[in-house]
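Input chain follows. Return structure tokens only.
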Amino acid sequence: MDRKSREKEMASVLLSSLCMSPEDVVLGFHLLIESTEDATLDNLAIVEDLTMFFARSVVDEVITPSDLEAMEEEASRGMTGGSTGMLALRNVQALLGAKLSAEWILRCWGSGGSGKAGWELDDVKDKIGKLLQEYDYGSDIREACRCIKELGMPFFHHEVVKKALVAIMEKKGKDERLWGLLAECYGRGLITPNQMTKGLERLASCVDDLALDVPDAGKQFCCYVERTKKGGLLDASFPNGVCS
């Protein structure tokens, strides 16, 4: 945390690439929280830095929001509310709850290092759109899965869900190929339950805009929610949103 933005970005990319158990990652963050008071003497911006590392780890799916809640609960038993660690944990909860927070968090340290981690999100969105089009025009499902995996951004696979469902919506729900791709990606673990949920949440937030071009967008969305639930791709507790 006492390095520049480029090194911070590289550290986040490394954390998302290592094959560590969530328990080990959480334990590492606990140790970091315990050492923050001493580190504050050398780094006055440690609260902001620690907040961003926590937030980035959640967006990258290195840890879960429930892990954060557990850390805050445990830290509260041994720290005061004004301690550096507690401030960072509270800040990250507010940050993650903000609109479009994931996109901003991914860019919090600029483009960072070289390679895929430095891609702009607009570029990634364009790549996802093109690979879905290519698949829909007749490419092999294995090739489509390979392309999605090679994007190297598993924390952004909710964009695959959203774009695929929008494409299906524009075709009045008649595109079974893209449904098949979503099911295959889910079965392979390329699209996690969290990413599937996030993709549908993003679609729900733009249904009104989509209705300008697809009048029955709201009705179709309700059908998609039910279909993904019945297919085991979405938790039954997911709220129907515009369907209610």
